[in-house]
């Protein structure tokens, strides 16, 4: 003490000097004059993972989220739906845990009979950090379905209904939607949306569904060429969140990928690119793909396909089905790269798209071929 | 007022202890001066009123103060006796627009400007009184002598007002005596004598709301017939003199009187029901039941309900549903043409919530809901087995009036079908003057009450739901409100 300046005094004097200096330079005024950006934050990165706001909601979702499809190899049919056997459940739990560690914060769990309970157990310690997405898969009254989900998870972060393949939203959908809106009002659900495959239905949903927070729709580099020209601008204008499902076309893009690892095609083991029947087509395509992909060290076609989706700022998250650990790793690694595709990468995607077009819908798994028809003719 | 007083005593005890006596006197002067100012009878009283006209313009005062007067009564009174009122320096002039503070009745948001100490003089007083105090020539400490709102020195008595005050107090005493006399006769059901006493009171203080209400009550008891209504029993409301239970014979619709009152609208529980705020409701009649399919058929000639036919033998007494807000307006137009007196309409959402909550303004508990309402837990159609995955078709509305009656003997306010209200969905505060009750405006219209397929939480009386006015869903119905036929009271100012 004795004449010495105390630390508090010193800091106070310094602060005064600095403020005085800035004031003299007119910087203080200049700082005050800077316009404050009123736009809300749309996206941010943390720990490598990219998070984007879902439409106009307050939810930030990781660019990669975990889909609900379970590996059919481990499925066991029960009276109340399919479940995974112990090995399959352990594998899925491990994959989800790894995904959460990598920053994935949304997990879809629509298969209520088999997945609600294990998922609820897994996320319980970190519930506030994980977004649970649920879809109504049965005819159960929506309010009761949501109540049942809320009993497992406390609340549902994203709830959606599947709109089917009709031409437009009908009374039955409106009645379900009404119940969902009410559930949101009562705090059981945070964001409400629809899953839809056809553009006409997407447009109808935008027009008819009051308070629509998000639309979940198929989007990948092949089907993005389908005519979303009306839907996308209107959805973006209305601030509706967009979630891309089938970013790898139900796993079929892996079949076009010369670098796909074995085991990447769980829904259909055939690899079209290397089948004998395809040989007249293949050499040129494989050469083209390989040439372009060679210029992207360690890049696979699937990763390029994921980056195609990630690079779209209007897509909040992509939700591929991931049954293998390396699929999760690859999809995550794609986020760490520069998201914009180079010219060569675009060329590779175009070559793969042409190849898929030459094969019509047969390159998709049987139960998804109708989708190809809808996409390409819409 | 209580909250305001608590706030004062907590934060500024010393200052306001000294000041409280002055404030009480000031309030009395303002009230009495207002009473006198409105009275044209006595010449000497008129002079007194002129001399205190600054303090006396109650209507101007509260109009100018607006929403602020609802809580800050003393501050408004102080301000009203100062010249601030005359020079149109109102609350906003010094405290800013403070919209957040006005909207947040829980006082969590403070006004935009709240100056204290010497800042009051520097930031506020000196903008007009730049030359300083004429007594002390000081410019920095106005608040030491002058209270900021009153601009008066509490140490000095109000000049020349003792005698005026006496006269005004005597007038007030005569008014009170007439009111007491009127009430005494009203208790003995001597409506004519009581009416005369209230009229005499009204002559002493024209425009007094209490006297006017009592006079109207007496006149209603003298003329019990209401056009287009049929009285169901001899029960009358004490405050309005209106019959509590009536019927509209043209469509066999029983209605109940919802007496006037204030209630706290909204709930902190739901995002769009915030903030909780006080709303005053005038008396109106409300259907005891939701409009039934038979009533709709009788007026419109068709039955749009989704639950009718052989499966529903009692469907005529079930609520009509699958009607849009626009359908309801068409129904009301036809009904008003058909029934003498007309006045049918949809209730506003404030009226609906007030009627549902009742005089105690309480939301029902879980046990009450089960007794009051048909909802998801008890509306499964007969014969449908209980399963976890039942769809909407497994549920149906029920015959009206088959659960316990709620407040004011109204049935099915919770559950059965949701009820359209006249109001546009807009954020609170509820203000009918902001266009939300305009029938021609475009937007979502409010639905209240919850339906047979809803969860218990959805039946909360404060929960707001909204839907497009042209949309018909199988759980949206209506309940009619009807205006109370107006009385023509004598204008005693002429």
Description:
- The complex is a heterodimer of chains A (378) and B (494).
- By secondary structure, chain A is of the alpha/beta class.
- Chain A has a single domain, classed as Alpha-Beta Barrel (TIM Barrel).
- Helix content of chain A is 42%, strand content 15%.
- In chain A, the strands form 3 sheets. Chain A has a 7-stranded parallel β-sheet with strand order 6-7-8-9-10-11-12. In chain A, strands 1-2-3 form a 3-stranded antiparallel β-sheet, covered by helices on one side.
- In chain A, β7 (131-136), α5 (142-153) and β8 (156-162) form a beta-alpha-beta unit.
- The longest helix of chain A has 18 residues, at 7-24.
- Chain A is globular, with a radius of gyration of 25 Å.
- Chain B has 494 residues and is α+β, with helices and mostly antiparallel strands.
- Helix content of chain B is 36%, strand content 10%.
- Chain B has 16 helices and 12 strands.
- The longest helix of chain B is centred in the N-terminal third of the chain and has 26 residues, at 13-38.
- The model of chain B is unreliable at 1-24 and 28-59 (pLDDT under 50).
- At the A-B interface, α5 and α6 of A face β10 of B.
Features:
heterodimer, A: 378 residues, alpha/beta, TIM Barrel, seven-stranded parallel beta sheet, three-stranded antiparallel beta sheet, 13 helices, 12 strands, 42% helix, 15% strand, B: 494 residues, alpha+beta, six-stranded antiparallel beta sheet, four-stranded mixed beta sheet, 16 helices, globular
Q: Given the structure, what is the number of helices of chain B?
A: 16
Alpha carbon gap, first and last residue of chain A: 82 Å
- Largest sheet, spatial ordering of strands of chain A: 6-7-8-9-10-11-12
Largest interface: A-B, 22 and 28 residues
Helix content of chain B: 25-40%
| Whole-number mean pLDDT of chain A | 80
Say what the CATH topology of chain A is: TIM Barrel
What proportion of the residues of chain B form beta strands (DSSP E)? 5-15%
Order of helices and strands of chain A: HHEEEEEHEHEHEHEHEHEHHEHHH
Mean pLDDT of chain B: 80
- Biggest sheet statistics of chain B: 6 strands, antiparallel
Termini of chain B, distance in Å? 35 Å
Discrete helix count of chain A = 13
Ranges of chain B with pLDDT <50 over ≥5 residues? 1-24, 28-59
Inertia-based shape of chain B = globular
Largest sheet report of chain A: 7 strands, parallel
Strand content of chain A: 15-25%
Shape of chain A: globular
Q: For this entry, what is the oligomeric state of its chains?
A: heterodimer
Radius of gyration of chain A: 25 Å
CATH class of chain A: Alpha Beta
């Amino acid at each position: 003490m004795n004449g010495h300046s105390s630390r508090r005094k010193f800091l106070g004097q310094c602060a005064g000097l600095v403020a005085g200096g800035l004031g003299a330079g007119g910087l203080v005024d200049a700082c005050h004059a800077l316009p404050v950006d009123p736009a809300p934050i749309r996206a941010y990165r943390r720990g490598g993972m990219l998070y984007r706001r879902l439409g106009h909601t307050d939810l930030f979702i990781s660019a990669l989220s975990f889909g609900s499809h379970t590996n059919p190899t481990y499925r066991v049919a029960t009276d109340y739906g399919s479940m995974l056997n112990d090995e399959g459940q352990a594998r899925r739990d491990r994959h989800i845990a790894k995904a959460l560690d990598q920053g994935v914060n949304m997990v879809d769990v629509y298969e209520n009979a088999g997945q609600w309970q294990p998922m609820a157990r897994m996320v319980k310690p970190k519930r506030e950090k994980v977004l649970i997405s649920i879809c109504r898969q049965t005819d159960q009254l929506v309010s009761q379905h949501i109540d049942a989900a809320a009993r497992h998870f406390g609340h549902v972060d994203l709830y959606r209904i599947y709109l089917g393949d009709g031409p437009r939203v009908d009374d039955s959908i409106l009645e379900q939607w009404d119940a969902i809106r009410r559930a949101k009002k009562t705090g059981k659900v945070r964001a409400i949306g629809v899953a839809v495959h056809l553009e006409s239905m997407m447009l109808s949903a935008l027009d008819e569904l009051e308070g629509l927070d998000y639309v979940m729709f198929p989007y990948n580099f092949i089907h993005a060429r389908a005519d979303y020209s009306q839907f996308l601008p209107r959805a973006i204008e209305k601030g509706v969140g967009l979630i891309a499902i089938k970013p790898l076309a139900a796993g079929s893009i892996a079949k076009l990928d010369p670098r796909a690892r074995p085991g990447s095609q769980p829904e259909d083991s055939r690899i079209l690119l290397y089948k004998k029947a395809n040989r007249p087509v293949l050499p040129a395509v494989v050469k083209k793909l390989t040439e372009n992909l060679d210029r992207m060290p360690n890049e696979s076609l699937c990763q390029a396909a994921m980056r195609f989706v990630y690079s779209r700022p209007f897509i909040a998250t992509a939700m591929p089905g991931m049954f293998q650990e390396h699929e999760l790793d690859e999809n995550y690694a794609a986020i760490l790269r520069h998201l914009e595709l180079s010219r060569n990468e675009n060329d590779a995607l175009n070559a793969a798209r042409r190849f898929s077009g030459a094969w019509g819908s047969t390159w998709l798994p049987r139960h998804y071929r109708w989708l190809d028809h809808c996409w390409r003719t819409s | 007022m209580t909250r305001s007083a608590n706030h004062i005593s907590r934060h500024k005890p010393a200052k306001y202890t000294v000041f409280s006596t002055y404030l009480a006197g000031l309030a009395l002067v303002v009230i009495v001066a207002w009473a006198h100012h409105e009275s044209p009878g006595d010449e000497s009283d008129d002079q007194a009123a002129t001399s205190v006209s600054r303090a006396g313009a109650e209507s101007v005062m509260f109009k100018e103060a607006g929403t602020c007067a609802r809580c800050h009564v003393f501050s408004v009174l102080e301000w009203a006796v100062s010249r601030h009122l005359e020079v149109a320096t109102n609350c906003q002039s010094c405290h800013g627009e403070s919209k957040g503070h006005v909207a947040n009745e829980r006082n969590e948001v403070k006004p935009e400007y709240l100056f204290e100490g010497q800042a009051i003089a520097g930031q506020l007083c000196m903008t007009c009184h730049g030359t300083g105090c004429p007594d002390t020539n000081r410019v920095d400490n106005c608040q030491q002598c002058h209270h900021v709102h009153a601009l008066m020195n509490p140490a000095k008595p109000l000049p020349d007002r003792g005698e005026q005050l006496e006269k005004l107090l005597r007038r007030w005493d005569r008014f009170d005596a007439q009111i007491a006399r009127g009430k005494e006769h009203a208790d003995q059901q001597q409506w004519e004598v009581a009416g005369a006493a209230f009229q005499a009171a009204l002559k002493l203080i024209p425009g007094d709301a209490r006297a006017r209400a009592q006079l109207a009550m007496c006149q209603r008891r003298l003329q019990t017939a209401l056009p287009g209504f049929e009285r169901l029993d001899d029960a009358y409301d004490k405050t309005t003199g209106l019959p509590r239970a009536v019927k509209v014979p043209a469509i066999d619709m029983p209605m109940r009187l919802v007496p006037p009152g204030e209630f706290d609208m909204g709930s902190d529980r739901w995002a769009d029901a915030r903030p909780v705020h006080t709303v005053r409701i005038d008396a109106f009649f409300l259907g005891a039941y939701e409009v039934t399919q038979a009533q709709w058929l009788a007026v419109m000639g068709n039955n749009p309900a989704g639950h009718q036919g052989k499966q529903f033998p009692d469907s005529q007494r079930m609520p009509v549903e699958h009607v849009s807000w626009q359908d309801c307006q068409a129904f009301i137009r036809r009904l008003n043409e058909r029934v003498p007196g007309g006045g049918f309409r949809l209730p506003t959402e404030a009226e609906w919530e007030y009627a549902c909550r009742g005089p105690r303004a309480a939301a029902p508990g879980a046990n009450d809901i089960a007794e009051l309402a048909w909802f998801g837990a008890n509306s499964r159609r007969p014969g449908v087995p209980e399963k976890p995955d039942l769809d909407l078709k497994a549920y149906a509305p029920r015959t009206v009036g088959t659960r316990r009656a709620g407040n004011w003997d109204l049935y099915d306010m919770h559950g059965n079908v949701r009820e359209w209200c006249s109001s546009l969905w807009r954020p609170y505060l509820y203000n009918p003057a902001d266009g939300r009750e305009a029938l021609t405006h475009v937007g979502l219209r409010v639905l209240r009450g919850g339906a047979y397929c809803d969860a218990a939480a959805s039946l909360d009386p404060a929960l707001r739901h909204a839907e497009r006015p042209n949309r018909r869903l199988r759980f949206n119905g209506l309940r009619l409100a009807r205006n109370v036929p107006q009385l023509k009271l004598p204008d005693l100012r002429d």
